[in-house]
Amino acid sequence: MRNRVLRRVALAVGALALIGATAPSVALAAGETSARKPTVVLVHGAWADSSSWSPVMERLRKDGYPVRAIANPLRGLTSDTAYVNSYLAAIDGPMVLVGHSYGGAVITNSGVSDPDVKALVYIAGFIPAKGETVGELAAKSPTPIPLVSTEVPDGTEVSIDPDHFRDAFAGDVDKTTAADLAAAQRPANTRAVTDAGVEEAYRTVPAWSLITRQDHAIAPDVQRFMSKRAGAHIEEVSASHAVMVSRPDAVTRVIEDAARNAR
Question: Where is the secretion signal located (predicted)?
């Protein structure tokens, strides 16, 4: 009896030793098949705020992506770039940097600040070259945006005339939601359109661009010109400038495509 008990104990110890020896390789295999998803960093543009990304954030989180939505100060391209750079420095691991509208100009400058930025995604975004301003690119669109201006201590702020907000910014969004967006829009300092770009992150970081074919804020042809010049992977959707509100599925699809394919 005693010999049988000792033999069982020896077998159990041997089994535990075998498990211990093989556990590291099992953990490594699991790590190889479940790589960490990059953090998606969302940068809104003028006349919006970070809450405009809410439908997109909901979908990204459901698919397992960590998400951050930056409150873009809209004080000017130079200072906004510095702000986003500091924000990116506080995030660990790989990132996909997403910019809507004027936010596209910001990520074009900020994308070179951190080697962990693995992809740029432009959502109806401005993509300036070095020395080019958002104002110069906006002037290429045939229909100017109806703006109202306000003098403030650090210059001039502009916002979209609320009576024309839906047509200019959110034509495919229901009237109530468009009215809420108009009321909550954040004005932008005119330096956002007069500061020149100083970096071209798309030269070294893979870029994707979603072009909005019903856009009255940045003409689709202007979006195509910028996207082709940047060498971006291009997708198109029939949507207004507020595509992250009206077509969040399309926006999410492009972001996740960039996340999967960027290295």
Answer: 1-29
Say how far apart CA 124 and CA 141 lie, in whole Å: 13
pLDDT the model gives residue 69: 98
Residue with structure tokens 């990132």? 95
132-162 pLDDT, tens digit each = 999 999 999 999 999 999 999 999 999 999 9
CB-based contact 83:73 (threshold 8 Å): yes
Write out the residue range of the structural domain in which residue 124 sits.
39-261
Q: What is the pTM of this model?
A: 0.87
Indicate if 104 and 226 belong to the same structural domain. yes
Q: Both 7 and 81 in a single domain? A: no
Domain count, the chain: 2
For tokens 């074919």, what's the residue?
213
| Cβ atoms within 10 Å, residue 180 | 13
Taking residue 185's Cβ as centre, other Cβ atoms within 10 Å add up to 18
Does 115 lie in the same domain as 15?
A: no
The whole-angstrom separation of Cα 256 and Cα 261 is: 9
pLDDT, tens digit (0-9, with 9 covering 90-100), for 17-44:
333 333 333 333 333 334 789 999 999 9
Contact 161, 146 (CB under 8 A): yes
CA-to-CA dists, residue 204 to 87, 200, 230, angstroms: 20, 8, 10
